Amino acid sequence: MLIVIALLMIAVAFAAYSVIMMSWFRAPSRQGPAVVSRAEAEERLAAARREFRARLLDPRAHLRLSDALWKTGRPVDSFYVLYAARQLFSEDAFRRAHAEVVLGAGGPAAEVRRRLEGLRDAASSVPVHAEVARDHPDSHEGRQSLDALSRLATGDENATGGEAAQMARAALEELHHADSKHAGKLAALGMAFFARGDYGLAHAVASEALAKNPDQAGAAQILGALALQQKDMEGAMRWLAASWDRNPDDLYSASKLAQIYDKRRADAESALPFYLALHRQNPDFADAGEPVERRIRETLDARRESLLKMAPVEGLGARFALDDASLRAEACLRAAAFQDPRWIDRLSELLDDDAEIVRRNADYALFEIGKKEREALQARRDLWLASDKPLVRIRALNLFADLDGKNALPALATALRDPNPAVRAFAKVMVLDHYYADLPEAAKLRASYLAAERDPEALSLLARFPGR
Q: Closest Cα partner for 28 from 295, 181, 211, 247?
């Protein structure tokens, strides 16, 4: 009886342990702590799409669309919208919109952090960072302050200026003890120990937190870093994936997982979700000097060419509707290669796509089809140029300027008087300056348009792309 009871107790304990460990090692679900319903996410996406098309010259509208696409589970579309906005707007305008919309910067935490301005002594900044991290830990500014405290805590407490390191470590310990369930506060403390080479302390603080709370994402991040340091790749991947699964703000784990998949395993496809998340939070993120933005584009280009290389002309219809802008864009290129008129109307719908790469490729596909089926496109010319969708009007004007040459000048003159300032500005930048830069007749159109334009957002775009 004693042996049987003992075996049962062991079995129960092992089962409980297995449940805990498997909950850590499961594949990332990428659901953040505050998940909205699918219906609510779709409603927000619909609203963002309306705003984007109504305010094509506002970088915040572009970033809100990118953010809504991300939260609806369309990360590739989100990337392309964000990437296009970065090309279109000035660096300052893009950064302000990104900080406000994607990072959620501003508000009370930003007000507290303003006290850092003018501080030259690192030790003087510690109380400010500690206050922000204590009161607003989940804000953009709160994460910045936790990172700052973690960096300061890695310093030598016995060296010159060591007071700041000592204060930062004490602040992190106090923050963690006051809120032991917060992943960011624990990770900041443990990773400070790790960066100092105090691996035993880092392991101890992670193990203690994990014993109290098996769902402590910060502990998983620290244990993942320790596993990497010990060259235990399998253990590192399990712990880092567990941390990333529970804490979407853990960019350390995302970056390490991307490196493992891409650099060590030569599996760029598996690294892509992590690269996309890193780029969304920090479009300037670089790995070993290589911008992650470039790596994402290379991976998406290679993938889409591979997946649709053998796609038959009959199967393109379904590809035009895929929830992946890179594949929709490639489907357009396949349609261009086939020059099949059956896809004219479907391609015209993609002139209003969320992603610029899709709109551009649809324009190109229609141009290629128009070389063989000119009458079919001309029959739709007036309908497209007068569309109630501004993106269609812009792209149709570009298409017929390419197809018709000087014959498109009357349509260009109409577009330069369009009630939508984005249509006017893009007509000048994309069409007038590109196709008719040296044409004497176009000089009058250019002069009259520039003299009449008063919209500040249109003028800002024109200043950024002045043409020749």
A: 247
